[in-house]
Amino acid sequence: MKLEKIHWYIASSIFIVILDYFSILNFAKRPADQFIIPVKKEIYAKFDVLKNFGDTLLSYPQIAQVYEERNDLAKQRENLQFQLQKIQEENTKLRIQLEAPFPSTFKFVPAYVIGISKFMEIDEGSDAGIKVGQVVVDGQLILGKIVSVTPRRSRIMLLSDPDFDMAGVTDRDTRGSIVGQSGQAVLLSHVLQKDSLFLNDIVKTAGDEQTPPNLLVGKIIYISVDETATYKQATIKPSIDPFREKIVFVITSL
Amino acid sequence: MKKIILIVFICIILESVIISYPVTLLAITLLSIFIEEDVVLLAFIAGIVLDLFSLRIVGVSSLYFLALIYMGSRYRKKIYGGAFAYRFSYLFLSYLVYNFLFYKTVSIYGVITTTIFGSAALLFLDRLFGGKGNKRRLSV
Questions:
Q1: Residues of A at the B interface (Cβ-Cβ below 8 Å)?
Q2: Are the CB atoms for A184 and A195 separated by under 8 Å?
Q3: Collapsing DSSP states into helix, strand and coil, what is residue B86?
Q4: Bridge-partner residues for B139, per DSSP?
Q5: What mean pLDDT is predicted for residues A102-127?
Q6: Across chain B, what does the average pLDDT equal?
Q7: What's the pTM value of the predicted model, to 2 decimals?
Q8: How far is CA A205 from the centre of its chain?
Q9: pLDDT tier at B140 (50, 70, 90 boundaries)?
Q10: Which ipTM score applies to this complex?
């Protein structure tokens, strides 16, 4: 390195400083900015993420703890949301059930549906006062009746079960038997030929020792008439889809 | 030389975009001792570019870098051949003045950190280049 050379550069620097001090270099700065601004912008954007990397690294144990707590809280929140949803559903159901025009002597046991195949299974049993033969409803709609009970679970025979049999009556006071058919169909059978039966007639329970009257079954969608037979029958479209039920009510006392 | 230019450019970018430490100065002071090629031109251009990137008066950083190189060359034997305290003082003062002039602050913590880092790098490079820094001297 020659000292003369460095003197030259120092002199040049001083000259440039003077030029820039009096804004003479502005004409050259403008085109330079066209390159500098995008470069700085891009790099700043990239480094923005890394700016706190050191702090992040140093506080890793706290971050890990916070992350764990966050996960726990998320789980708790999910759990609470699920519980809230359940409570809201239960609340809605109870409101509907309370508004149903049943006598005040009726006692209901709310139960969650825990399974459904041939029978519907609920999470309440004899411990809650449920007995075989009791009727299960949702609002004014009948779902079926209890066929077996354990202390904490019960099985419900649905309306569509071939073994289901219950006295029914239409809103024209035509009596018959509500029986199930394999599949989803429910029939109003053993209806006398002389009794009137029309499409869209509403079918309700007639009532017996364990079944209250006027529980809604569904409406007639098809009538099968055979003039030579003693009885006629009608196909009922149930007002309720048991596969959509989450909470049901067992009438434990009439 | 290309690698050196790249390193200096990265230092300029770092200093002008994200950190307020005199990393370009650090690079220039270290390079002025250990590279064979003419570092004066590099310091001059680096200063100009740094000023453009940092929106300073163009030429002031060049002037400072060149002044430091000049001082370092004049007192090379004392700084690099003498006690460690000289080296430390040289770096400390250069960073302190730089901070005061360009960052308008006297952050002792920052200056000490940079000085320690600079001294450590100097020792490391001195070992790496086998004391080349002590032999080279600006001819007058």
A1: 1-3, 5-6, 9-10, 12-17, 19-21, 25, 29, 32, 36, 39-40, 43-44, 47, 51
A2: no
A3: helix
A4: A2
A5: 82
A6: 79
A7: 0.47
A8: 30
A9: very low
A10: 0.81
